[in-house]
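We were asked to recover a plausible sequence for a given structure. The inputs and outputs are reproduced exactly as logged, with field labels preserved.

PROBLEM: sequence recovery
POSITIONS: 469
GIVEN STRUCTURE:
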């Protein structure tokens, strides 16, 4: 009998999936685990991985879930959740869900991620949102460094102004994808809610507009215009740090929009606490929603981005060249795009294949390398310090296990982080030959696949490289 109940729940998920975007389904519904159905009490028990997911489902999707359950089970069904409070110690909490008074088929949701028609909403007002249609969630590749901001951004786009993520403050270094993400939020929001007044503006353009309004004595009109926006996206707000009048004006706009429940999205190259020149009354408002850091993409995410762009543009680039570009582009998405565009241009103009030699030439001209390249001495210093072994022991002929391990780790990292051939690496690490280096690298690679503690050691050493640079 339980099996048939599971089939009914699977049908519920099928109905829900038809009424939401794929990303929403994977984020909020896929983690749900069906536990049981009580026929007497007509109650479904669902396990969810956190109280946050439960609150989100109850706030935004309780009607959709109730409709799907009623449709599948052919009766009004009550929802009960088992919340995972502590997964490590297997602690749970059961909570009764809110059952809506009326259960009806969803209206807007039945279109999934299609643009609503005039039957769903009034025609949008004539306002150019200043968004780049190419910068979407579909083209924003997800990785560990951007998973949280991307997930939150998608949630905001689906429910602008209605979540606790208001304002949404994104910060991170140049080239990490902040502009792409805030654009993606605006594009998705405008697609789902065409009647909403969505506007993307750079901090510099906002300041120019404000200065012009002061010069033309139209400041009230300027403020009134911005107070009509439903979703305001401002990029690079760190540029206002030395402009107190602009900040004071934005404070009044921000305060009005926030009180009216309008969505505010801000992007900066630094967190609010580091915005010098910004008054506390504005800093506290920047911090009252959600502050999310967008880190530079790591090597694997750079590789995923490059492969995606290659498929999109029909480029054929060897895997070794892709990895080389990912390792040398400083974790900047802009640099990745610039290198690919240059490679494509050279390949077409000179009718040549894209190889390592061409990639090295392009990167030398296109990518500014701020950090000095790692040397064997750098690597030996960090590895020996990590393991508490002297370089003299590493260079010796000793076959003690701890010395051999340090020697092999140094060889592996030298091969990974420098362009030296194995023979040269062996000469610099105790006068070994190239076959010794290759054997050491192979031993390290095999151990990385099975030893988690060893992986953590390697990550710690490589992190120290970044700090030194």
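RECOVERED SEQUENCE:
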């Amino acid at each position: 009998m339980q099996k048939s109940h599971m089939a009914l729940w699977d049908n519920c998920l099928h109905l829900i999936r038809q009424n939401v975007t794929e990303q929403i389904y994977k984020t909020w519904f896929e983690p749900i685990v069906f536990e049981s159905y009580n026929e007497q009490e007509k109650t479904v028990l669902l396990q969810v991985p956190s109280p946050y997911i439960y609150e989100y489902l109850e706030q935004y999707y309780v009607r959709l879930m109730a409709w799907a359950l009623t449709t599948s089970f052919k009766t009004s069904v009550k929802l009960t959740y088992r919340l995972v409070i502590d997964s490590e110690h297997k602690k749970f909490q059961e909570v009764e869900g809110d059952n809506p008074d009326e259960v009806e088929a969803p209206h807007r949701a039945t279109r999934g991620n299609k643009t609503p028609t005039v039957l769903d909403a009034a025609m949008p007002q004539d306002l150019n949102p200043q968004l780049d249609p190419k910068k979407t969630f579909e083209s924003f590749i997800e990785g560990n460094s951007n998973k949280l901001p991307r997930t939150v951004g998608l949630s905001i786009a689906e429910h602008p102004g209605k979540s606790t993520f208001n304002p949404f403050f994104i910060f991170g270094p140049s080239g990490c994808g902040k502009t792409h993400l805030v654009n993606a939020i605006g594009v998705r929001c405008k697609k789902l809610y065409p009647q909403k007044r969505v506007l993307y503006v750079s901090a510099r353009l906002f300041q120019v507009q404000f200065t012009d309004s002061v010069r033309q004595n139209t400041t009230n009109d300027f403020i009134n215009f911005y107070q009509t926006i439903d979703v305001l996206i401002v990029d690079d707000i760190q540029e206002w740090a030395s402009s107190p009048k602009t900040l004071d004006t934005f404070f009044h706009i921000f305060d009005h929009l926030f009180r009216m429940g309008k969505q505010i999205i801000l992007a900066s190259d630094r967190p609010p606490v580091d915005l010098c020149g910004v008054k506390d009354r504005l800093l506290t408002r920047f911090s009252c929603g959600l502050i999310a850091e967008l880190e530079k993409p790591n090597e694997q995410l750079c590789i995923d981005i490059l492969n995606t762009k290659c498929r999109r543009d029909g480029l054929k680039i060897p895997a070794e060249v892709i990895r080389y570009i990912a390792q040398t582009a400083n974790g900047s998405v802009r640099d990745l795009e610039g290198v690919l565009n240059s490679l494509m241009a050279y390949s077409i103009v000179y009718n040549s294949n894209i190889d390592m030699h061409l990639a090295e030439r392009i990167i030398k001209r296109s990518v500014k390398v701020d950090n000095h390249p790692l040397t064997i001495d750098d690597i030996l210093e960090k590895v020996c310090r990590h393991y508490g072994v002297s370089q003299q022991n590493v260079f010796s002929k000793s076959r003690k296990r701890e010395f051999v391990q340090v020697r092999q780790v140094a060889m592996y990292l030298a091969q990974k982080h420098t362009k030296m051939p194995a023979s040269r690496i062996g000469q610099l690490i105790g006068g070994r030959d190239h076959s010794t280096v290759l054997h050491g690298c192979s031993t390290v690679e095999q151990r990385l696949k099975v030893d988690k503690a060893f992986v953590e050691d390697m990550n710690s050493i490589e992190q120290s490289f970044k700090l030194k640079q």
